[in-house]
Each structure stands twice: as structure tokens, then as C-alpha cells.
Specification:
The protein is an alpha/beta fold. Helix content is 34%, strand content 17%. The protein has a 10-stranded mixed beta sheet, sandwiched between helices. Strands 14, 16, 17 and 18 form a 4-stranded mixed beta sheet that branches. A two-stranded antiparallel ribbon has the order 3-4. Helix 5 runs antiparallel to helix 6 and helix 5 packs across helix 7. The longest helix is centred in the middle third of the chain and has 28 residues. The chain starts with 8 loop residues before the first strand and ends in a 5-residue tail after the last strand. The relative contact order is 0.15.
Length: 488
């Protein structure tokens, strides 16, 4: 029987863009805010090892959180990887080693994993990469880590699925890995056969890459080696598994989302979406399962300007801004593609807020938890990277889109249900790509901190979204965050 968990606060954090909003830095800040008054727990409620949540401390220590909660630099804080997480055990081990290298201690003692977490293997990764290569110039923008492949497999009856709990069962682990390898090998060979029929649509280099990936996958010796590596982890590291966090681990739980609402599997712009649910739905499901009575606080995070890593629509993209605002933590990747920058997009932000509200209403229409944020999707809005706009000579904000007939659209239509067909989702993407941003000019600022023009910029965002900005980030560290109003 599930025991209830008593929490003083439950803070739910989600990105309202296409990812890279600064969620990791915000979670680190929230953890530090609450660490002085009690124990903090960070719960990862979606995503997997493709996440890149960078945290920088005041002394310059930097860590890219992938699977661990972004509060782990704070002593005594804990991480719980929920059943909605996809886990790469070997990458998790490497991440722990990296944290230990910067002086963080007792990490395994501060970490719990739900035994139902899906495990992603190199076989998923190779097939994922082959799928992206086979798409030629129509890539979806995958991270190439196999996370989506593993998650989708877990939802299909009959396909072999490996879960964290299987690391403790030698016979099942070996059998599942062998079967998984055979299935992925068969799928990969079919994929290559289909790609050869479309050889004219692919570049010679892409065709060679497909063949090289398949050769890698055909190496049967990887199966027993991977099994032994997985089996060694529980004994060597003391991995703790539980279907819910221990009630003694936290007074405050911070639910850390991955990716962004605009990439959500049901509400994103297909086909450039994730198989994950990037709204608060998973976090609410966990709160209900754990019988948490605390009213959660919904926190949405956005950059002060629009960004997107890889393929897909970015209506306000600006080549000059992209050149002027290089990101130290986001370069061009072989699978995601380039990091792109644009002006703040109030239309997409309004869409994300509406998505969050609709997704929760559809999942739990009678759940009183959703009432505090039901009208506008969130309780608090945090804007990050405002400092990076200082010195920009021309600041503007997209307050609407103009269609081919000259009609101004201030909002985008929501899908009729949370399980929209791919055809309908693709049509919505095509509709978005036919629109052109309508801009509102704003006063630029060059001084650090929060000069009047910077405050006016934040006020304009709050006015456009109908949600006041509760906090702002003026740099990379927790000390650079500022509370502007009650709620953050």
C-alpha cells in the first residue's frame, strides 16, 4: 500500500518553450532557497539522459545535469527518478563520477530510482540515429540518444522492455537484452532496406552512415558485455530502488521537468516533438499516487528571448540575434543541429500556457490541485537570461502573427483533445509556418541589473501573457536570481 508523503511545499517546474529555458539553474536556485528551512527533494518527472540542465555556482563550479536532479550541488538534497524517467545506467554512473570530481559527496545515498524506469540501451541509440539519417533533409531534430525509441517501445505490447528493477535479476536482464538486440537488429535491417530503395533521396555520406551504424549494431559481442556492465552497477554502487521517495527525505519537493511544453508529444508541433509529456501531467500523477495533500505551485520558465536547438519552426528566428547571442552550453550538435535564436514570442508563450491548463484539465478534470493554475496554466513565471539582452540595440517582442490574408492572430488554436492525431498535428505545424510575426518595439538597455528599460521589458512580457513575472535571472548562478513578486 502506498504511504502518504507529507510535504510543506511542492514546486512544479516546466519549461514553456522548446527546451533550454534555464530549468536546471532555476531548480538549483529553488533548492538553495528552501535548503535552509528543511530537506529538499528533486523529482525528475519526464525525459531522460538527453537532458542538459547546466548549473553554475558562485565559485565557478559547473555541472551539466542529465539524469540527476539539478539540486544535487546543495548538500543533503536528494534526487528521485520517477517511473516516467528513461534511464541510461552507464551514463548515470558517468554523471555521478563527474559530480564527485567537483567535490560532491554521498550521491548514491541521496539518490533513489523507481524500479519501473525504462532503461535505454545502445541498441535504441543506434536505431534512433539510423532513423534520423534515413530522414535525409527532413530530420525531426532528435538528440540521437535513443530515449524516445526506448519510451515508445515501452508503450507497445510485445516488445522487449528493460527496466531499472531488472538490473537486480540476472536471468531476466540477460534474456531481455538479447531479445532487445535481436528486435532492434531486425528493425535496423528493414530500415536500411527501405532507405536503399530511396537511395536517390539520400546523400552518399548518409547512406554510408546508415551502413556503418548497422555494422555497429550487428556486433553480437556487445550484448553479454552490456549485461555484465549493467549487473555490476547495483552491487558496486548501492543503487536504491523504490516506487516512491522515502517520506523522511524531504520537506520540499521540486519537480524538475525536461524539454519544453512546445515539444510535448500531444501538443507540440509534429513531427518535431518528443515522445515524452512535457506538461505538468506526470508530476500531478505522482502527487496523486503519493497521496500528497499539499497544494502544488506551478512554475513556468522562459528565456527572455526565443531559442530552439535543432529542426522545427521558430517563427521569430533572427540570424543576427543568433550570431550575437552564442550560448556557452548549446552549440551545434551532429543530431540536434544548430542552436537558433529569435525574439521573444508571446504567441507561442500564450499557447504554452493554454496547453498546460488544458493538459491538466483533460488528465484530471475533477482534481482540485489544478484550480490554482487552471485559468492561466501556471502560478509563477520566471524569466531567465535577461542579462544577455543588455547592449542589444533593437529589442522587439512578437505580440501576434499575420497570415497570408493580412489577419492578425494573437493566439494559436489548441488541439481538440490531448491525443491529437499526427495528421492534425502536422496541419497545425504547417499553419504556423505560413504565419509571420508582428512585432512590438521595446526600449533597449545596456546597464547591468534591472534598469528601468529592463523592468519595462519584463512588464511587457507579463502584460502580453497575463501573468506577472515573479522572478528573473540576471546571470548563471543562484545569486543572480531576483524575486520580483510573491509566488516564485
Amino acid at each position: 500500500m502506498t504511504a502518504s508523503i507529507a510535504l510543506k511545499h511542492a514546486l512544479l517546474v516546466a519549461g514553456l518553450g522548446f527546451g533550454d529555458e534555464g530549468k536546471g539553474s532555476v531548480v538549483d536556485w529553488l533548492t538553495r532557497q528552501h535548503a535552509a528551512t528543511g530537506k529538499t527533494l528533486v523529482v525528475r518527472y519526464n525525459g531522460g539522459p538527453q537532458a542538459a540542465h547546466h548549473v553554475v555556482t558562485q565559485d565557478g563550479t559547473t555541472h551539466c545535469f542529465s539524469q540527476l536532479g539539478a539540486g544535487m550541488l546543495v548538500p543533503q538534497s536528494c534526487t528521485f527518478l520517477s517511473r516516467f524517467m528513461v534511464v541510461d545506467p552507464l551514463a548515470l554512473f558517468a554523471e555521478v563520477q563527474a559530480l564527485q570530481g567537483v567535490g560532491v559527496r554521498d550521491i548514491w545515498a541521496r539518490l533513489q530510482l523507481d524500479p519501473r524506469c525504462v532503461v535505454v540501451t545502445p541498441f535504441h541509440r543506434i536505431l534512433n540515429q539510423m532513423q534520423e539519417v534515413a530522414r535525409g533533409s527532413s530530420r525531426h531534430g532528435s538528440c540521437g540518444r535513443g530515449v524516445g525509441q526506448a519510451l515508445l517501445d515501452s508503450e507497445k505490447p510485445g516488445l522487449p522492455v528493460l527496466r531499472i528493477g531488472d538490473l537486480f535479476d540476472h536471468n531476466r536482464l540477460r534474456a531481455q537484452l538479447k531479445l532487445q538486440w535481436l528486435v532492434k537488429l531486425d528493425q535496423a535491417e528493414q530500415l536500411l532496406s527501405a532507405a536503399e530503395e530511396l537511395h536517390a533521396a539520400l546523400q552518399p555520406s548518409e547512406h554510408r552512415q546508415l551502413q556503418e551504424l548497422l555494422v555497429d549494431l550487428r556486433n553480437e559481442g556487445r550484448v553479454p558485455a552490456l549485461a555484465e556492465a549493467f549487473l555490476a552497477l547495483p552491487q558496486q554502487l548501492g543503487i536504491t530502488i523504490a516506487e516512491q521517495p522515502h517520506s523522511a527525505h524531504a520537506d520540499v519537493a521540486i519537480f524538475e521537468g525536461a524539454q519544453g511544453v512546445l515539444l510535448d508529444r500531444s501538443y507540440g508541433f509534429f513531427p518535431h516533438v518528443t515522445p515524452s509529456r512535457a506538461t505538468f501531467v506526470n508530476a500531478h500523477a505522482l502527487l496523486k499516487e503519493w497521496q500528497v495533500d499539499t497544494q502544488p505551485k506551478h512554475i513556468g520558465v522562459l528565456r527572455a528571448y526565443a531559442t530552439r536547438h535543432g529542426a522545427g519552426p521558430l517563427p521569430t528566428e533572427d540570424a543576427q540575434l543568433t550570431a550575437q547571442l552564442p550560448d556557452p552550453h548549446n552549440g551545434s550538435g551532429p543530431w540536434q543541429g544548430p542552436f537558433r535564436v529569435g525574439h521573444f514570442d508571446a504567441v507561442l508563450a500564450r499557447y504554452a500556457l493554454a496547453v498546460v491548463a488544458q493538459a491538466q484539465a483533460a488528465a484530471s478534470p475533477d482534481d482540485g490541485r489544478s484550480t490554482s493554475a487552471s485559468a492561466r496554466g501556471i502560478d509563477s513565471l520566471i524569466i531567465t537570461c535577461l542579462d544577455r539582452l543588455a547592449g542589444q540595440t533593437s529589442l522587439q517582442l512578437a505580440d501576434g502573427y499575420i497570415d497570408q490574408s493580412g489577419v492578425l492572430h494573437r493566439t494559436l488554436p489548441l488541439p481538440p483533445t490531448s491525443e491529437t492525431s499526427t495528421q492534425a498535428a502536422a496541419q497545425q505545424t504547417q499553419f504556423l509556418q505560413r504565419l509571420h510575426p508582428h512585432y512590438r518595439a521595446l526600449q533597449s538597455f545596456s546597464e547591468p541589473g534591472l534598469p528601468a528599460a529592463a523592468q519595462a521589458y519584463l512588464a511587457a512580457i507579463g502584460e502580453e501573457l497575463g501573468v506577472p513575472v515573479a522572478a528573473v535571472s540576471l546571470g548563471r548562478t543562484a545569486q543572480d536570481k531576483r524575486n520580483l513578486s510573491v509566488g516564485a
